[in-house]
Amino acid sequence: MATFKADMQAKMKDKASLVNCFFSAEGFSSFNSSEYTVFPGFCDVHVHFREPGFSYKETIATGSLAAARGGYTDVCTMPNLNPVPDSPEHLKQQLDAIERDAVIGVHPYGSITVGQKGEQLADLEGMAKNVIAFSDDGRGVQDGGMMKEAMQRAKALGKMIVAHCEVNELLRGGYIHDGEYARLHGHRGICSESEWRQIERDLKLADEVGCAYHVCHISTKESVEIIREAKKSGVDVTCETGPHYLILNDMDLREEGRFKMNPPLRSEADRLALIEGIVDGTVDMIATDHAPHSAEEKGRGLEKSAFGIVGIETAFPLMYTYMVRNSVISLEKLVELLVYNPRERFGLPIGDGLSVWRLDEEFTVDPAEFISKGKATPFENTLVFGKCYGTLYNGKAYKF
Question: 247: domain CATH number?
Answer without folding.
Answer: 3.20.20.140
